[in-house]
Amino acid sequence: MVRFLLARPIAVLMTFVALMVFSVIVFRTLPISLLPPIDVPQIVIKVNYPNASPEAIEQNVLANIRAELMTLNGLEEVDSKAGSEVGTIRLTFDYGTKMELAYIDVNEKIDRITNSLPAGLARPQVIRINTNDIPVIRVQVIPKPGIDYAEVSLLAENVLKKRLEQLQGVSLVDINGKKERGITVTPDKAGLRALGMTEENVIRAIRFGNEELPGISVEDGQFRYYLRMATRVDTPDDIMRLPVTNDKGLTVELGRVAEVKYENKDVLGYHYFGTQEGLVITVHKQASAKMNEMMPLIYESLDYFRADYPQVDFDVTQDQSTLLNAGISNLQTSLLFGGMFAFGVLFIFMGNYRTPVIIGISLPSSLIISFLVFYFFEISINVISLSGLALGLGMLIDNSIIVLDNITRKRKEGLPIFEACVQGVNEVMSALISSVLTTLAVFIPLVFLSGISGALFYDQAVSVAAILFVSLLVAFILLPMLYHFFFRNKSVEELAKEDSKFFRAVLRGYKALYQKIFLRRGLSFTVFMLFIPLALLVSQLLKTEGLPPIEKFDALVEIDWNEPIGVEQNRDRLLSSLEALGEGYLKAESDIGVRQFLLFDGENSIQQASVYFLFESQESKNEMTQRFRQLVTSNFPTAEISVMDAPNAFDQLFASNIPYYEVRWKDLGTKRPVDEAKMDEWLETFPTPEYDRGPGLQKEASVVFSLDAPKMTTYGVTVSGIQDQINKLFGNFTITEIKRFGEITPIRMKGEQADFEQLLRSSFVAGQDGNEYALSNFIRFDYVNHYKFVTADKGGIYQSVNLNADNPTQYDSQINEWAADKNLGVSFFGQYFKDRETISQLIGILMVAVLLLYFILSAQFESFVQPLIVIFTLPLGIGGAFIVLFLTGTSLNVMSAIGLVVMLGIMVNDAILKIDTINRLRIKYKDTTALTAKEILDRALYEAGEIRLKPILMTSVTTILALLPVVFSAGLGADLQRPLVFSVIGGLTIGTFTALYFVPLAYWFIGGKITVKESERITV
């Protein structure tokens, strides 16, 4: 095939040009995003139930929803959590479930049970989690002093949001911190009583004045008119002119007995930018959108907003495109330095300018053509796929160098340039194909990992496979054609002089060390074999984590005040802490209390707040966050505060919302939470003190109202009457609503702002005799500590503790005995079990990968013994990588693991080509010399090392030097890639030595038992 294609250079050249043109066209259509659009198999249902206790939300809402959802297909886990006024249900599905269909099923089931839920309850929100749900940027909207906040809320909702949604690539715009304007009616209770009226007279007057006559019309000759009540109200002035009539017929204007005015509705949450109240707009991208094109449009829109709406200040925070830009920057850096160092290394080793030019043409050609594969596999350009391309670049240079070196060697042997190109490619073709297949055999099985990890590896595996197979296409077809073009006028004598003085010195050093090692073959082989377990033991000293620690100048502080405070007190506490902190930060934004985001799937609680800080340096970040922690805890001792790095998209994707090791129990008798006093007594005998209370055991102070039924009967006071009065005093009592062209303005009864005991004494309820009595006569109250949350799963209500022990499973049997004595059903749950499952899957997948590697090499070498040589080189390279990771203080994480895969691919490549060369030389010397089998083996080992020295050194040195700049770089991208670089450098440093000396030693001990006759069969 190579001969056929080389005979038609113009056709081949035009084909490659056409492929590159199509690739450039396709590249312009590829979506560019931070992460692949992964469907996280979770759906969250949020319930907002104002003024409801956790028990009421669990019994009246969440229990009904859970029961209805149990029949969903693919449902793996159900967890619900009921708190004060809010409740959430998190559904986890088997990975691979069609989440589009699951989302539709959940909504249908919610609609089906809506009528059985409490009257007036807003429809539960159903949130489907997707990587595109992570906002790409947060826009701060801050009203200037004197500007009506409600008007700015309308501006954000009706104008800013819609203008941002019209931008190309934007899928959703979400807002937090809005305030809606309403009309409040504050009755004059003394005036009402003086006129013989009650609040109910005011309510009836307003409702009657706002009634509609739907569908009523009158005829006037040939015309028909629809009727509208003339008393329909629009403004507070209209309401104050309404007539209020008592039972005796006395009528006065409503304005005489009540104050009516526009006011902002009470809110359950606030948003602050620094110490200024404002709104935040989060922008989400479409799956197919290009983030690098969308972000400039957003910034351009903000410039227009600043010009059009000078009454509002705008700013941006948490721009997630920085991580994508870092990934693209790293790829560009790898390409730039890879090309530069490839040029430099080739000049040092080859001493000519033609070979570097050929490499310079093949490298970008392979990369550009790879994007065609992206298009056909529907892969976006994201951090994961870009890292896959970066992984393949080392192998791409490797293949090019090996093919060019082999063609040059054939020319030196005296073959004509056309035959040298054909035979040079054919000789290494099967070995290079095997090396690519073995690399993919190590990498592609990782796609079958369950969960998000497997989904992420899919993009990376496709990108690696794309660039590797394209590199083979370029190496087998384009490179020999370019070589023929550039070297057609070079004589064999000129080629013989192309080895530089540097390489000749390296060659002499290699030969001298080779002879010393082979003089003591047994000892040398033993040293190599002992190095494997010793180096692998270093892995036990390495810290294990998900992502590498990235130097970030921002932080997220989560605060739970652990007291039953209102949202205003929550706000005041946080602002006082921020003001005391001073100006030691660049930016800060706070979400206080309940958040209004449609896509927020976290816990909404009035007693919680989160603060995002951006600092100037890491030192400033550490100092200021520590100071902020001390400020909060010293002023509010009950507060729980956690400081963490501000999560980027990676963190949000990989973060687990389940505890590490949780012990759950259910009361088998009552099916309810165990009483507080009894539970406290039981926990004193819990088998280990190393635990934290789970949500179902956390407590908070609350007030319990009890009705005095005998006294109510005596005075003829009804339960409904008292409930109605309590709702008006403490609830959110809506009289009616004004509807105008889609805009709804509620009219609410506003109670007195006073202590609840005083309100009970100053508020009255009517008895059957017509007299009014103070509410305090019929209501008793007690302060009690009550469970803060009610938690439940598929099996019903549970309570739990989270174990903090290093080996949590050691207490399992004792915990089972403890639970059995108390008639509790106990179960164990947490990330610990998921991690064990992932590790067992990973071990199985890696075993499959090693088997695939062995099968491919067995097919390549036609031997069951020689593949073992390649497999034995792998732990040597891994051990070298572990040593460098340990010496540099780097953890074993996702990026360093990816570096191991890259390094193993290059090591396998070198080992395969060396063994292939040894086999060929044994056949050659068998046919052309009268040497003994042992002499043939020794000579083949020695000459194969000399032949493969140059490509092995060039590929290793090129790869190491191309990656080396990352070690000395700073920034997010460099921090992310540095563990990968250390793995590759450590593995290749040992791996190069292994390929040069261990492979011939192992061949002599293992592969040398194969006869020359068998080698001939192997090679042929």
TrEMBL record:
<feature type="transmembrane region" description="Helical">
    <location>
        <begin position="980"/>
        <end position="1006"/>
    </location>
</feature>
<feature type="transmembrane region" description="Helical">
    <location>
        <begin position="331"/>
        <end position="350"/>
    </location>
</feature>
<feature type="transmembrane region" description="Helical">
    <location>
        <begin position="357"/>
        <end position="377"/>
    </location>
</feature>
<feature type="transmembrane region" description="Helical">
    <location>
        <begin position="523"/>
        <end position="542"/>
    </location>
</feature>
<keyword id="KW-1133">Transmembrane helix</keyword>
<dbReference type="InterPro" id="IPR001036">
    <property type="entry name" value="Acrflvin-R"/>
</dbReference>
<feature type="transmembrane region" description="Helical">
    <location>
        <begin position="436"/>
        <end position="458"/>
    </location>
</feature>
<dbReference type="InterPro" id="IPR027463">
    <property type="entry name" value="AcrB_DN_DC_subdom"/>
</dbReference>
<feature type="transmembrane region" description="Helical">
    <location>
        <begin position="464"/>
        <end position="487"/>
    </location>
</feature>
<feature type="transmembrane region" description="Helical">
    <location>
        <begin position="839"/>
        <end position="857"/>
    </location>
</feature>
<feature type="transmembrane region" description="Helical">
    <location>
        <begin position="952"/>
        <end position="974"/>
    </location>
</feature>
<feature type="transmembrane region" description="Helical">
    <location>
        <begin position="894"/>
        <end position="913"/>
    </location>
</feature>
<dbReference type="GO" id="GO:0005886">
    <property type="term" value="C:plasma membrane"/>
</dbReference>
<feature type="transmembrane region" description="Helical">
    <location>
        <begin position="869"/>
        <end position="888"/>
    </location>
</feature>
<feature type="transmembrane region" description="Helical">
    <location>
        <begin position="12"/>
        <end position="30"/>
    </location>
</feature>
<keyword id="KW-0812">Transmembrane</keyword>
<dbReference type="GO" id="GO:0042910">
    <property type="term" value="F:xenobiotic transmembrane transporter activity"/>
</dbReference>
<dbReference type="Pfam" id="PF00873">
    <property type="entry name" value="ACR_tran"/>
</dbReference>
<protein>
    <submittedName>
        <fullName>Multidrug efflux pump subunit AcrB</fullName>
    </submittedName>
</protein>
<feature type="transmembrane region" description="Helical">
    <location>
        <begin position="383"/>
        <end position="404"/>
    </location>
</feature>
<keyword id="KW-0472">Membrane</keyword>
